[in-house]
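Chain X:
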Amino acid sequence: MTLWADLRQKALSDIPSLEVVIWDAIRIAIFFALAQFLIRVGVRITRRMLSLHARMDERRRKTLESLFTNVIRYTVYFVLVVEILSLFHVNVSAILASAGIVGVAVGFGAQSLVKDLISGLFILFEDQYGVGDIVQINGFKGTVISIGIRLTRIQAWTGEVQVIPNGQITSVTNYSRTHSTAVIDVTVPYDVDVDLVKSIMQRVLLGLQEERPDVVTGPVEVLGVQDVSNTNLVIRATAVCAPTKNGEIEREAHERIKEELDRALHENEEAQGTTGGELAAE
């Protein structure tokens, strides 16, 4: 009977008083309110900082906003739980040590996943490329259709979609950030009038520049003879274009130059025919 009474007395002595319970409840409520306040402030600051990047597309902005919001929320809640546990005299250090051991074990088992996630963060934060950009990644060229924390998806112009883990990306060439240069090479017979061909190329490129100033954004230049063989000459011209528009201008320029050369050749033949007829009449 005495033992039971001692145990009862011990249990009752360990029960905190009503004042202590109320004070602890108030502290928990204050911690929770402070946590909500910190989360809101952190999210607002994050949104404000991301909105200052004018070049960042909406998809990347939303991805980064969601990512940083989750990081802020989980960090604040983690600190909140630690503080609440310390109120109840829980050995937080032992829990954190156990969690650290588990984290190390998981990290060794998921190294590639962690590498993909970290690389994805750097790609998004450094704005290496965005959705819609034409890029070449690890030798595969295409248009970026999605960027995730772990994967990047690229679609080639022929339709194939390449899925690349971000941790495996070793080289990136972005064709959509700076101007492109259209290189127009025209192969003509060796005995052609070079000045005539150069004048036609110059006229065609200047016409394209006047018609499409949003595409041909820089200077055009006829460089002259680029290559010489026994039977042909290669005459080169260049035009500075908007990003990724150089191929379009090259095709259009080649078609127009071909038409102009055909017209000039036809006029030359007619002129020679007329001269030959006059000489025969005499």
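Chain Y:
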Amino acid sequence: MDQKPSSRIIFSLVCLLILSPPIHGQLDYRFYDTSCPNLTRIVRYGVWSAMLNETRMAASLLRMHFHDCFVDGCDASLLLDDSDDIISEKSASPNKNSVRGYEVIDSIKADVEKACPSTVSCADILTIAAREAVFLSGGPFWYVALGRRDGTAANRTAANEQLPSPFDSLTTITAKFAAKGLDTKDVVVLSGAHTIGFAQCFTFKNRLFNFNNSGEPDPALDTSLLRNLQSLCPNNVSSNSNLAPLDPVTTSRFDNVYYKNLMNSSGLLQSDQALLDDSDTASMVSDYSRYPYMFFRDFGASMVKMDSIGVLTGGNGEIRTNCRVVN
């Protein structure tokens, strides 16, 4: 039987009170208690409605938050459109035709503006939305410190260079995380976000037909999964944008099955399966595959760390009234 939401909240809170790092700068768990007391309810309803329309949106919102925080911090720079003064991050290679859900954040922002005009940043809305997407998918609940302000610039170059890629080695991914103040444990834990969502065939097709230019499939890939993926992603360019679930077992549920898949040689992305190539990361994968509560606890703690990357507070940045443009 599924664990009740209230029980998951209590469990997650106890863990995070023990394990969470200090709140960054001027962030505060009660930042909007007076100025926008219904903020969480508004965001939760917006995320719930979007997921009701398309379950896949949960993973999309979580990924959007990740891609925002890894480029100059959690400042909603990813949400900015091209303009005379802005070269948008949306058109960077890791984001173009990949990151999605911008219209969901637009809708939530509009509802928040109606309730609390010029009060809540897009960065805070996206941070809460990512937490709600996980929780409403059956995952952990963690408390989010608020008070971020929105950036007034975008950085397409950094988006192209700093975001981890499914083609990166574990060493490269770990280095990119370290540059953001995240450690190897955070790499393993946050990779667990791939328990929900889909990947386009081009991100893993080399494993199916020509692994490392060998002309053969990746020998580490489970043979049954290999056959299914070769059918879904035939070896031609037209299949590149076809979608495959990152976790084919419980595709829309946030759980620890992702790690069980890795233990069974059924990780979809090479960068995921590579977690078993290092003894330290392999040990963590094994633990999370056996202890879902441990994964939930650590995922919340790692998200709190990521949520604090490069945040703008106080008089820095601004509170955008439209997430797509600076004021």
